[in-house]
Write a structure and sequence with these properties.
This is D-galactonate dehydratase. This protein is of the alpha+beta class. The protein has two domains: 3-120, Enolase-like, N-terminal domain (Enolase-like, domain 1, 2-Layer Sandwich); 126-171, no CATH class. The protein is built from five helices and six strands; from the N terminus they run βββααααββαβ. The chain has helices at residues 56-65, 73-85, 92-113, 117-120, 145-156; strands spanning 3-21, 24-38, 43-47, 133-134, 138-139, 162-163. The strands form two sheets. It has a four-stranded antiparallel beta sheet with strand order 3-2-1-5. It has a two-stranded parallel ribbon with strand order 4-6. A hairpin with a 2-residue loop joins strand 1 and strand 2. The longest helix is centred in the middle third of the chain and has 22 residues, at 92-113.
């Protein structure tokens, strides 16, 4: 099996009401998705930075990945890391691009083996995991009343923990 194509997609959905967090204010939810195709018709999907036009991963790693065996994940990961590490780009955009590829390669491996990725990684060790509520973003003109109402709602729903945003000046 060989990698034949890499394609990135940027998805964006405007928010009805912008919100703030410790890094500022946002008016849309944005995510980058990466699609890696193989000559056997198996497609893997990953999430991470794909660039403004969706071609960042292909530009950065295309010559390393296209034509390579997608099941040779360790060698491919090391090659990608070596490429961005020397340029001090292993964190940020470079690291996020590696993550997108890595996720897509694991997706391909699981599909090729007919197994879940958790089984490929050694199997599940539990049937349930604890979850917490993520929210409590700042919104214009609602500080702190709406945040208190939202936190109360999470408690009433049974969450044992919450992740809140701190550090930014509220409006």
């Amino acid at each position: 099996m060989l990698i034949t194509n890499i394609e990135g997609f940027n998805l964006s959905s405007p928010l009805e009401r912008p919100f703030g967090w410790s890094n500022g204010w946002i008016s849309a939810r944005v995510v980058g998705l990466l699609k890696i195709e193989t000559d056997e018709g198996i497609t893997g999907w990953g999430e991470g930075y794909v660039g403004a036009r969706g071609d960042f991963v292909k530009q950065l790693f295309g010559d390393l990945l296209i034509g390579a065996d997608p099941l040779n994940r360790n060698a491919l990961w090391q090659g990608m890391f070596d490429r961005v590490y020397n340029g001090n780009n292993a964190g940020g955009f470079g690291g996020s691009a590696i993550s997108a590829v890595d996720i897509a390669l694991w997706d391909i491996a699981g599909k090729a083996a007919g197994q879940s990725v958790s089984d490929l990684l050694g199997g599940r060790i539990r049937d349930k995991v604890a979850v917490y509520a993520t929210g409590l973003y700042y919104t214009e003109g609602e500080f702190p009343t709406r945040l208190l109402d939202e936190a109360t709602m999470y408690v009433e729903l049974g969450f044992k923990g919450m992740k809140t945003k701190i550090g930014a000046a509220h409006p």
